[in-house]
Amino acid sequence: MMPPKATYKKFESEPGLEFEFYLADRLGMTVARLRAEMPHHELVAWHVYHGRKAQRRELAEKQAANRRRRR
Q1: Rg of the Cα trace of the chain?
Q2: Distance (Å, rounded) from C-alpha 56 to C-alpha 26?
């Protein structure tokens, strides 16, 4: 069964929602529990941390690709 379109639209209109689901999944809890137990400032810090981690990984991949091309 496919979720209703409203569910997809909610993820599109609320960028942080997908991260909340990701983090809750990684921590083995529901989004409701995550929201109840984690202070908002900590959730924001986790979001920033994961964003920066992804940026560093992407930069390292680009640098490695550039090094391979120069050979």
Answers
A1: 17
A2: 20
Task: Report yes or no on 16 lying in a domain.
Answer: yes
User: What would the two tokens of residue 14 be?
Assistant: 């609320």
Q: According to the model, what pLDDT value does residue 7 have? A: 87
Q: How far is CA 71 from CA 48, 59, 61, 68, in A?
A: 35, 19, 16, 6
Whole-prediction pTM: 0.76
The CB density around residue 52, as the number of other CB atoms within 10 Å, is 10
Give the Å distances, CA to CA, from 1 to 4, 8, 9: 9, 14, 17
The total of structural domains in the chain comes to 1
47, 16 in Cβ contact below 8 A? yes
